[in-house]
Amino acid sequence: MQMAWMSGSWVQICRIDTEHNMVHRHQLRQDKPDDDVGMVTDLEFISQAGGTDLIGRWYDEGIDLMQAEWEESIRRWKQ
Amino acid sequence: MSVGINSRPAAAGFALAKLLRNAEFRAYLTRSGWAGGQHIIMAGDGEPFIEVFAKMLLHDTGPRVMVALEDEDSPFGFGLFTMTVTDETVPTDDVLTVAPSASVGMIFSYLRPRKWYVPHNMSRPFLLERAEAPA
Description:
Radius of gyration of chain A: 13 Å
Number of helices of chain A: 1
Distance between the termini of chain B: 37 Å
Strand content of chain A: 35-45%
Helix content of chain B: 25-40%
Largest sheet of chain A: 4 strands, antiparallel
Structural class of chain B: alpha+beta
Strand order of the largest sheet of chain A: 1-2-3-4
Helix content of chain A: 25-40%
Largest interface: A-B, 13 and 8 residues
Number of strands of chain B: 5
Radius of gyration of chain B: 14 Å
Shape of chain B: globular
Largest sheet of chain B: 5 strands, mixed
Strand order of the largest sheet of chain B: 1-2-3-5-4
Strand content of chain B: 15-25%
Order of helices and strands of chain B: HHEHEEHEE
Oligomer: heterodimer
């Protein structure tokens, strides 16, 4: 989860999580503060076989993605 | 001086986040006084301590934060110490004097294992405790 200090409080910018057998990226927006889901991008389907390994791999890849795209994520949040 | 996310401390912060998958590292953090949800402030070894302290005050971090800095002599490559606001009576012989030029690395080296810090113009003291290496 990427958080940012904005105008005196911490706000969530984006996050990567899992639900419905899928790894997702959620992009939130400044003008929709009550929308905790945001724009959802499917990243990878989690099959029963090897699911644990896949989630472990996405923990590291998710952090890499957050690090690489942190500026773009803030730009999208402000749009 | 602001610390950009492309700076070395920020990159180290992402490395530390990856370490959170490691159960031994999480146990080390817990023994060192960290609890889930508490802020971890990544600092550069040469970063002025007073700026790191200001981050705690200005960013609504709550009464306790953990400070982490890259340190090859520390377990997992990160030196750790907590800063906690307290109401305890400060032992006068264990108070940290912080020069404006003091760096985080200097403060970390000096904490063996704890010191009190009473910031100018603040009524409540802060307890700084250095993480102990795992047995």
